[in-house]
Amino acid sequence: MQNTNLKRRNVLKFAALFAAVPFIDVLTSRGELLAGTIVKFSTKLVQNGEVLTAAHWGMLKLTIKDGVIVKSEPYQKVSGIENSLQHHTQDLVYAKDRVKYPMVRKSYLKDPNNPKPELRGKDEWVRVSYDEAIKLIASQLKKTRKDKGAESIFAGSYGWKSSGNMHNCRILLHRFMTATGGFTGTVGDYSTGASQVIMPHVLGTLEVYEQQTSWPIVLEHSKVVVIWGANPAATLKIAWTASDDYGLKYLEELKNSGKKIICIDPFKTETCEYLNAQWVAPLPNTDVALMIGMAHSLIEAKKYDKEFLEEYTEGFDEFKDYIYGKKDKTIKSAAWASKICGIDEKTIKELAVLFFDNTTMFMSGWGMQRAHHGEQTHWMLITLASMLGQIGKPGGGFGLSYHYSNGGVPTAKSAIVGGITANVTADENAEGAEWLQNAAKFSFPVARVADALLNPGKKIQFNGKEITYPEIDFIYWAGGNPLVHHQDTNTLIKAWRKPRTVVINEAFWTPTARMADIVMPTTTSYERNDITGTGDYSNLNIVPMKQAVKKQFESRDDYQIFSDLAKEFGVHKEYTQNKTEMQWIEEFYTKAQTQAKAMSMSMPNFREFWDKNEPITFETPYENTQFVRYADFIEDPILDPLGTPSGRIEIYSKTIEEMNYDDCKAHPSWLEPAEWLGMKKKTAEFALITPHSTHRLHSQLNNTSLREKYAVANREPVWINTKDAKAKGIKSGDIVRVFNDRGQILVGAIVSDEVRKSVIKIDQGAWYDPMQRGEIGSLCLNGSVNVLTKDIPTSKLGNGNSSNTALVNIEKYTKAAPELSIFRQP
Amino acid sequence: MIRGLMIGFIFLSGSVFASESLYSSSVKDIYTSPDGKRSEGRLLPTSEVKILEKKDGKVKVEIEGFMKDGVSSAVYFTTGKRILTAGLSKKAKFDIKVISTSKDKDGVQWSKVVLTAYTTDDNLTKDLSALYKNAEAMYKDNCSICHPAHPNNEYTSNQWPSMIKSMSNRTAMTKEDVYLVTQFLQKHSKDIGDK
C-alpha cells in the first residue's frame, strides 16, 4: 500500500487544525470540525492491494493494481457452487457504456416547456455542466410541483439499486422528494406483487419475505422436498442486502442428502439438473389446477389431515364444495386437472399420496404468481399444505422464500447496521407537511405504472379499496430500469411520452437512461464508501464497502446529487444534517455497536473496523438452527394466533368475499388466464415463460463480459423444445424472431428437451435494444423479453404483474441481423 | 437510546394526580395489590389508565377494555380485533367489573370491562400524541432503510403484529420499541385509524 505519505499529510492537517482551536474538546468535536478533512482521510485509495466490498451477489475481494481494479473474486468460498456474478466488478466500473457527463436531450434543453417527448430515445444528447444540470432539474421540478401539485411528481423509482446502506439511491431520492414537498410513490413490487397482497388475508402476514424453517431442520427431517416453480441454484446468487453465500451451501447439502427431490416447472432448471431431481413439467399458468387435482386425490384416498384443517384453518368445507362442483357441477379430480395442466392423472395421484405419506417441504418460488390470477397459486399451495397437516412441524409445510436472499439460513445473534432513511422533516411552512398527511393517497400498485401514466384520473380497484391515478408530469428514477423490467415495452414507451420531464440517475446508458430528458452520471458502489449487512434473513455479517477506485469521469454519488438539489430548494441542512458520507456510515455502524453492547456482544469501534477492511461475522445460536416456521401457532393457536380475522389459516376469506371480485374469489380457485395454451382461440402458438436469469441480477450485469457465457449469436438465448424446433426448422445457434401482437425480438436458439413442448423460455433482463430508437413496435435486437409480455394486473386484489402469461410465435430469422448498439455510448 | 432516556425523564418529572387519564409509554407490569412483587399482568404501551390513587411510588389504576368470551387472560382495546391493552396471568385474580356485553359480527360475545390494578408510578404520560409521534418516527426510521415504509392504513390491526414480528429482527429496534411501534400501527391501521 502506498498511502503512507497521504496518511502523514493528513495527520499534519489534523494537528494544525487542533492547534488553531485549542479550547475545543478535540475528541468529541472532531467529527463536526473536520468533516471536510475526514472525507479525504478515509477515502485514501489503495493503489496496489486488496479491497473488501459487497454487492447483491456477495462479499467481494477486489485486487487493485496502480489504482485500477484488475480482479474481482468472492471474499469467501463456503460451497462448491460457483457464483458467476462475483467476477465482473471491473467490467462494470470500466464499462464502455458508462454515463460520463451530465447529459440533456436536445429538444428538452432547447425548450423545457415544449420538450417534444415523442423524441425520447432518438433525440440528440447535449453535454452540460454539472451545475447547469442541477439548476435545470431544480427549476423544472419546482415548476411542475407548483403547477400540478406534488402528486404529479412520480418518484416511486422501483428497482434493485446497488448494495449499501448509505448510497441507497432510491431511498435518497425519496428523502429528497419528502424534504422538498412530496411525490407519488408506489406500493408492492414486481417480484411478489400478487402473493404479498393475498398472503396477509390467508396467513395474516407478508410470508414471501420471512424467515423459513431452518435448513438444518429441513436436512434432518424432510423426506421429500418439492421445489415448485423456483430455481434456487440461480436466484440464491443474490440478496437484497448482500448475499451471505450460505443459501448455495445448503443447496449443496440438500443435493448430498439423498432425499427425494421433485422440481415442478415447465423448464428443467439448473437446480433440477444439479439436484438430480424428478422433473414434473406442467403447462405454464396451470399449477393451481394441478394442485386442486392433488387435493381431490387426497380426499378420495382419505389421505388428508381433518384434525389439522379443523383446528388451524377456516373454511375448508366451502373449498371442498368447490372441488366437488357443488355450484359449477364440475368435479375437479386428477382427471380434470390432467386435461388442464398436461400432467397425467396417475402422476398427480401418486405425487399427492407421496406428499401425504412423507414429511414434505414445499419450497415455492414466485414466478408462478407473476401470472394472471397469480394470487391463487400460493393460496392453493398453502391449502394443499394444510391438507397434508405438516405446517409448523419440523421439515414439513411450505416456504415461499427458500430461493431468495438465503432464506432458511439460520438467523445469527447480530447487531443491525443503520441506514439512510426517507424520513426527513419536511419544511413545516411548505405544502410538504400537508403532503405527508396525504402521501399514501396517491400511491398505486407498482406494476400499474404504464396504466397510470396513460390514464390519469382512472379509478382502479386494489385490495378492497378504490385508487385514483394522479396525473404524472415529472418522473425521477434512480437505481432502476423500467424499460426492461416492466411488461409490454411498447405500451410503456407510449406511456413514457406523457410526462413533460424525465430525470434519471444512472451509471450506465441503460435503455431507461436513453429514454430520459436529463441523465445524471452516478458512481458505481465501487467508487464510494458504504456499509451493508449480509444475508437478509441470517444477518450474518456487517461489511465495510470501501471505495476501491476513484470516481470515473464526472460521475457523482447520488447523495451528492440530491444534496446539491436540496440546496436549490433551501433544505440542504435538513437533507444532509450537515453530515458527510463517512459521518453517516460511522453513525450507522455505531447504531449496531450500541445494539451489540446491549446484547453483551463486543464490536470494535468504527475506525478500527474500517481500517481493518474485514467483515464482522456474528455467531448463530443453536436454537436458531432449530427454527420451525409456524411452530408457535401450531403449539397454541389461541395465544399465538395468525394475523387473519379468524386467527387461523383462511382457506375461505370473508374479507375477500366482501370485495366481490370476479378475478379473485373467496377461496382458491382455478381461473382461466387471459392467454394460455388451453384457450379456445389461441392468439399465438407457444407459451412464453420469463424467469430470472442465471447470470444476471435482473438487467444488472448484462453489460459485462459475463454475457459471453450465455449469449447465443450475440443475443439473449431462447430455449425451444427439440420437436418444436424441428417443426420450425430451427437449429441451436440460429437467430430466431419471437413475436406477438405486442412486439418482436431477436434471440439466439438453444434447442433442448429441457423445456416442455409448446413452451419457450427467455430469461427476463436483457437490455432493450430497438432497431429504430424511440420507435413503438421496433424489433429488439438484444431479446428483451418484456417486449412480448402482457401488461395486465394479476387481479383487482393484488394488481401484480402478469409477466408469465403470454403466447408468442417463433420463426427462424433469415434476414441479415443488425449488430447490437445498446452496450456502447449513445 | 437517548430518545428513550429523554422520554423517561420527561415522564418522571411530571407529577401524577389522582383521577386523571394517562397513557403508558412502555410495557408496564401490573399487580393485584399495592405491594405486589411478581408481575401478574402486562400493560401495553399507549394504553389509557385512570389514576385512582397514588402512594409510595405506586398508583392504583382503572383500565377500561374488552374481554372476549372464553379468553380470561386478555383485555383488548376494542371488540373483534386483537389489539391488546393488557395481558393477565391466568392465576391472577384482578378486580374486573363487567359494564356491558355485546356480540360481534361473528356472533362472539364481548364484555366491556373495567379492571382495577396497581402499577409503578412511572412511564405514564398525558401526551398520547407525542408518544405516537415517537413511535411513528421509529417505525419510519427503521423500516424505510430497506424499503418504503408501508402506510399505516395498508394493513389491518390484526395483520400488523405479524408483519412487525417477522420483519423487526432485521432492524435495530429493541423489544420494547417493537411493542410501542406495533401498538401505534394497530391503532392507526386500515380498520381502526382514520381512513
Overall spatial form of chain A? globular
Tell me the quaternary state: heterodimer
Strand and helix order of chain B:
HEEEEEEEEEEHHH
Q: From the alpha carbons, calculate the radius of gyration of chain A and give it in angstroms.
A: 27 Å
Biggest interface and its residues per chain? A-B, 45 and 32 residues
Strand content of chain B: 25-35%
Helical residues, percent of chain A: 25-40%
Task: Give the number of helices of chain B.
Answer: 4
User: What is the radius of gyration of chain B computed over CA atoms, rounded to a whole number of angstroms?
Assistant: 17 Å
| Distance linking N and C termini of chain B | 32 Å
Uncertain segments of chain B: 1-15
Strand order of the largest sheet of chain A: 5-4-19-18-17-6
Number of domains of chain B: 2
Number of helical regions of chain A: 32
- For the biggest β-sheet of chain B, the strand order reads 8-9-5-4-1-10
User: What form of chain B results from the Cα inertia axes?
Assistant: globular
